[in-house]
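Subgroup meeting minutes
Present: P.N., E.W., G.H.
Scribe: E.W.

1. P.N. recapped why we're keeping a running log of single-chain structure predictions: easier to compare across weeks, and new members can see raw inputs and outputs side by side.
2. G.H. added today's entry (280 aa).
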Amino acid sequence: MKQLQRFLIPVYLLLSIQLTSQAANEIIGARASAMGNTSVGSTDFWSIQNNQAGMALQNYLSAGIYYQNRFLLNELSTKSGAIVAPTKFGVLGFSFNQFGYNLYNENKFGLAYARAFSDRLRIGIQLDYQSTNVAEGYTSASFVTFELGIQSNITEKLCVGAYIYNPIRMEITAYPGDLAPMIMRLGLVYQFTTEFRGMADVEKNFETNASVRLGLEYVIQHKFFIRAGLSTNPGLFSMGVGIQLGRLQFDIAASTHQTLGISSQIGLTFQLVKSQANEK
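Output recorded in log:
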């Protein structure tokens, strides 16, 4: 299996070059990974990467880091970091992702802004700079684009969200006529009880088939989290746990692909200073 995985690395990277920003725009955060990559309706720290509208409910100046070891291969790893800062005028955020290794990597820098317009409506936007760097002798590429997200609390138990990445199909600088993909996600979160919630997302990359994602989360004493999920295209089963220790949140997850094997995810977020701006 290990030999098969390493054989598939150049194939995966060649596909990434043709669909540059595909990997750089993946779902970020061990919590989302554990729940089948559901994220559109979430309002946690990593909303800054997955649906910026959810960032509007962050009340702390916070920082976080995340690492994914895809199929247990360092060459296919993702490293992420972000900081979120509530203000009187909304919530600001800065994030960075890197996929790959020294011979091939995709990098994404994002500057985000989100605001809650009422108890039921939140909107977020992010400006992105993305680059693809290939080993010496090959052409690197970059482009600028944006993402837009919205969330609405339909009832006290039901939240729906929508998100779009690269809606104007920006052209990749090094490849005239080659457009970065547009990605749309729709999702919902339903709070069955105080301790138990379910999530469902649909993602459509306009160059591939749609992906359906389902996730569950159970909270024990407001500190311990048990999660599970599944998704299609690719077919993955995932699970994970989390723990809240004061202002520190620690999450781990693992997902399995029937052909390529296991991927592991780990994330850490820390709330630094509480803001009065978003308190009701």
